[in-house]
Amino acid sequence: MQPKQVHNWSYSKNSKGYIVVFDKHLLKEPTIEFTNIPYLDLSSIDKKSLKPLFEQLIEEFKYNDSLSEKTIIQGISFLLLKLRRLSNELLQNKGFYSKTTLKFSKLVLDNINKNLSVNDYASKLNLTIDKLNEICKENYGQSPKTIILEKKITEAKRLLYFTDLSVKEIAFRLGFEDSSYFSRIFKQKTNLSPTDFKSV
């Protein structure tokens, strides 16, 4: 998740798991070079090996002494390193497709303010449009066009929430040539107009 990215959590009734919130500076440790994989599909074996790490962190929070903070930081660092190893294994197993989706995702974010077509992105990745579509469908279950649009809508939410830019200014900043079209698409995706979203 990008810093300041608009997000929310939605849980099903049978949800089980842990959420760890920590300072972004922890990710800048030289030993923790993380990938851009947004999530990991864990096997049952991986889940069993990670669960005790979360439980140890929860247990450590019960203490309030000079060693507690250091122990928690080391515990989170170890957890991140374990996840780093799992992400490396995922990339090795899925190979070309995973690496290409990560490159595509990064390209979209890097060019979020430009009006680039799917063909433009395919060219930058040295792929045909059909191949990029196949890769996105296999990894994300969505077309490249949908992915691009959803990332633009997410950025629009951030700008509406955190800045004083007008709807028209945001539309043009995100590469939309027509602010009315931007407003229609935004409402289709969020069930709110940009103006209503900003006032919520």
UniProtKB/TrEMBL annotation:
Occurrences of domain HTH araC/xylS-type (ranges): 102-200
One Pfam family named in its UniProt record: HTH_18
Keyword Transcription regulation: yes
Keyword field: DNA-binding, Transcription, Transcription regulation
Gene Ontology MF terms in the entry: DNA-binding transcription factor activity; sequence-specific DNA binding
Gene3D superfamilies assigned to the protein according to its UniProt record, in alphabetical order: Homeodomain-like (1.10.10.60)
InterPro entries linked: Homeodomain-like_sf, HTH_AraC, HTH_AraC-typ_CS, Tscrpt_reg_AraC-type_HTH
Keyword Transferase: no
Recorded superkingdom: Bacteria
Protein name in the entry: Helix-turn-helix domain-containing protein
